[in-house]
Write a structure and sequence with these properties.
Oligomer: heterodimer
Strand content of chain B: under 5%
Shape of chain A: extended
Structural class of chain A: mainly alpha
Largest sheet of chain B: 2 strands, antiparallel
Number of helices of chain B: 14
Distance between the termini of chain B: 57 Å
Radius of gyration of chain B: 25 Å
Number of strands of chain A: 0
Order of helices and strands of chain B: HHEEHHHHHHHHHHHH
Order of helices and strands of chain A: HHHHHHHHHH
Distance between the termini of chain A: 50 Å
Largest sheet of chain A: none
Chain lengths: 225, 309
């Protein structure tokens, strides 16, 4: 009786989820495979002729292979900023977690405010212009890093707390300096949380639309979205 | 030998910077300069713009020259009816998305932690929209929500309901965007709730089952109170997200029809595009104050409640 009810509930769940979550994606796929006129009718139906590959080809060729350039730019942006983010925020989290000092209060405050405060649009543009980084990929990377730091530091700090201090002490006795200790001993141990950070931040940065709208409205670094 | 010299050299600035700290007595293996690169980037690209926004919101400004005009920008901001609508819409949008995400998220989490078939598959399906590009979602739903040819209204018509005009109707535009936001974001809330529900000890449910509690009672008296930390997290996260949200609204309506679905973030961007930098920055300051006030109040509210428990 009980299992039967659960089976019906499960079936109902599957149908509901399929309608609510999968139909929009099916719609994207079908529309992408339709010819221009058929797609214009906005109907949810199987395409009469599948022109998926041809459409992709057209999309890539549009505007002098703009999409490919955009894709490369997006990839560089994402890889560079996520790499910088992971190293820098792990370093901060490590020091903040391991060392009791009066700076910790300030750092915690800054981390929280970085999470909460909405970034100021125009002053950021102004800073970029003063530094000569406006409408460049480098400026965009630095902006993404600055916006992502807070979240990553929080994650890393929670994880570093679980790494025993005995490891640090052993490494220090063996004569490792601070940089060696961190990069050779601690950083490799962070692998699992690094994976989390990389996935979350890559998705966020690759899809980030608002920052690009404001920080590089030109066409020199067209984003993929 | 060489490492020792190295240690001393790198630690010196930290020691002078925090002289009374107890860490001074020996060379700390956790040097403060580790924070330096991150601090520089954060300072230049976040702290400086945030603080200068307070100043520039009081000026008439074209990025090179500025002229001090006092509170005129704020006066303008609150006199322009379109901008006040933006303020009101931001609050409506944040509250609607936040509320729906919490309610639907906890119901979905309850469903996805019970013993149903294809549980893992359903969990990943519910989380999938979180990963997709917001702009893509916005464009797709703009098509699906088309009043006459769109899929949603056509399916409603087949079961005899005349669907609303969604994005075209000034009355429903903002709520339609909010619904899409919920569709996209509910997966994240669900994951947080699942983590909360899974960590509730099994014994409580067993004890409740022996006492003859129904499924609803277990939900109401065990799941709800014990996942309060998760609820707090979801409320704060989604409220902040809702107050700041820009890209979905921009992709779907651009604030239209008219100004009926403008939120502060889109107003800021429109003013920026139009070249009213001072006014745009004033909008930023308003948003900043709004978000900070909301977070502060919520935080106070939730911490006090926890103490009472």
């Amino acid at each position: 009786m009980r299992t039967k009810r659960h089976r019906w509930l499960g079936l109902f769940g599957i149908v509901l989820f399929a309608v609510v979550f999968l139909v929009p994606f099916a719609f994207i796929l079908f529309t992408a495979a339709k010819t221009q006129t058929e797609a214009g009718q906005l109907q949810f139906s199987l395409p009469t002729t599948w022109t998926l590959l041809q459409n992709f080809g057209d999309a890539l060729r549009a505007r002098d292979y703009m999409l490919i350039i955009a894709f490369i730019n997006s990839t560089i942006l994402t890889v560079a900023s996520v790499a910088i983010l992971v190293v820098l925020s792990a370093m901060v989290a490590y020091v903040v977690q391991r060392r009791q000092s009066r700076w910790n209060g300030l750092i915690n405050f800054l981390v929280l405010s970085g999470l909460i405060i909405p970034p100021a649009v125009v002053p950021t543009v102004w800073v970029l212009q003063k530094l000569g980084l406006f409408k460049t990929l480098g400026g965009l990377i630095l902006i993404e890093v600055a916006f992502g730091l807070s979240f990553c530091i929080l994650l890393f700090r929670a994880f570093i707390a679980t790494i025993p201090r005995d490891l640090d002490e052993a490494a220090i006795i063996d004569g490792a300096g601070p940089a060696r200790l961190f990069f050779k001993v601690i950083f490799p141990l962070l692998k699992s949380v690094i994976v989390t950070v990389v996935i979350v931040q890559s998705v966020a940065i690759f899809n980030d639309f608002a920052t690009r709208c404001t920080s590089s409205p030109g066409t020199r670094t067209p984003p993929c979205s | 030998m060489s490492t020792e010299v190295n240690v001393r050299r790198t630690v010196t600035p930290a020691v002078t910077a925090s002289a009374p700290a107890p860490a001074v007595r020996k060379k700390s293996p956790y040097p403060h300069w580790f924070c330096l690169p991150a601090a520089v980037i954060f300072f230049v690209f976040f702290v400086v713009p945030t603080f200068s926004s307070f100043f520039f919101s009081l000026t008439r400004w074209d990025l090179t020259d500025w002229e001090f005009i006092g509170l005129d920008n704020f006066v303008n901001f609150f006199q322009e009816p379109a901008l006040v609508i933006g303020l009101k819409n931001t609050l409506i949008y944040a509250v609607v998305t936040c509320g729906l995400k919490v309610v639907l998220g906890i119901l979905l989490a309850q469903l996805l932690t019970s013993r149903i078939i294809a549980r893992g598959f359903l969990r990943s399906v519910a989380f999938f929209p979180v990963l997709v590009s917001t702009i893509g979602v916005g464009l797709t739903f703009t098509v699906l929500m088309d009043p006459s040819a769109g899929l949603i209204n056509k399916s409603l018509a087949t079961i005899g309901i005349e669907g609303p005009a969604w994005l075209v109707d000034p009355k429903t535009a903002l709520l339609s965007v909010a619904l899409v936001d919920v569709w996209k974001g509910v997966g994240l809330a669900t994951v947080i709730f699942i983590a909360g529900i899974v960590s509730i000890p099994r014994e409580y449910f067993e004890a409740a089952a022996t006492d003859g509690a129904s499924a609803f009672h277990r939900f109401r008296h065990i799941v709800l109170p014990l996942s309060k930390p998760a609820i707090t997290t979801v409320i704060i996260l989604s409220l902040i997200g809702g107050l700041r949200s820009f890209d979905l609204i921009w992709a779907m309506t651009r604030g239209g029809p008219g100004f009926t679905s403008d939120v502060i973030a889109s107003v800021i961007y429109k003013q920026y595009q139009a070249g009213f930098y001072g006014l745009s920055t004033a909008g930023n300051v308003v948003l900043f104050l709004l978000v900070t006030a909301v977070v502060f109040l919520l935080y106070r509210f939730f911490t006090r409640q926890e103490v009472d428990l």
